[in-house]
Amino acid sequence: MRKIKLANFAVMSGLNPDHEAALREVVTELSAGENLVNICPSQWRGEPLPSQQAVKEIITLSRAIIFPGFFGDSDVTRENLLYFTGLWSEKLYKLLTEQIHAGLSMDVCTEDAPEFAATERLASTKAAAFMSCLPELRRLLNADVRATYYGDPAASSVQEVIYCYPGIRAICNHRIAHELVKLEVPIIPRMISELAHGETGIDIHPAATIGESFTIDHGTGIVIGATAIVGNNVKIYQGVTLGAKSFDLDKDGNPVKGEPRHPIIGNNVIIYSNASILGRITIGDNAVIGGNIWVTENVAAGERLIQAKANNVLRIKH
Fold first, then answer.
1. Banded pLDDT at 308 (limits 50, 70, 90)
2. In this model, does residue 45 exceed pLDDT 70?
3. What are phi and psi of 26, to 5 degrees?
4. Residue 10: is its pLDDT beyond 50?
5. Residue in 142, 43, 49 with CA at minimum distance from that of residue 99
6. Helix, coil or strand: residue 192
7. How far apart are CA 274 and CA 80, in angstroms?
8. Helix axes 166-182, 188-200, angle to 10 degrees
9. Which of 11, 22, 59, 275, CA to CA, is 20 to 30 A from 117?
10. Inter-axis angle of helices 116-132 and 81-107, to 10 degrees?
């Protein structure tokens, strides 16, 4: 059967018949199990794989529910809001169940495929738990929108902030992904964060903990690591990195996973453009970090770090 299909392909595509044997050999080699080292054994048994398109739809539906009229169907009114919210919520629940199921299946890398029905039940439970978080997600994101509007003199309205600001899109994805991380959903949260990364240039790991009224101004090039903790009313500008300074290594010389290695940012902190804050250090409440500064030591509450002449960092304490 394979020879017939391959011969038909050669004729239909205009391939030189002299190359058919070589092509067949390439196909055989590419299909050999030993060459597919990154596919878990359970995937060979038909378990579902996450879908990039479905995850995009999850974000579209979540944004539409949280900000009705701004995302999704623009014909939403007070009179039909209940209908649209119900429609979107049903679609979102089904998509979440399917994709969480796929993520859970992909996370089990054994010769025996996960038990389908049990995994699907677990996925539906996690999807329902996420749905119950949507009112709180709306509250948090509305606070982010207000903080962005009041903190930016160029913003003409909260509507403009929701429609146009990449920071709000990135924060929205992050808050959705972070809820899924707390529900111990594998893979899907990272897919969501990478969608925001591609859309906005803002790279926030879904495991990072971010407080209320978070503002991202401009945003391009921002990186926030997995174990970073950000307090309330924090504002950061483009190019800021909340990263790791170094990694503990295991016996094979590979970085140890899961160790706290990113900064803790207090409340009411402002971090200006292109500042790099590295390592498990603490930036105290009400501190200000100036632009183009490399910070690897704790910063006291209320302290200001600015770039002085001759590239020295000047500490100003209140």
1. confident
2. no
3. -65, -45
4. no
5. 49
6. helix
7. 45
8. 170
9. 59
10. 140
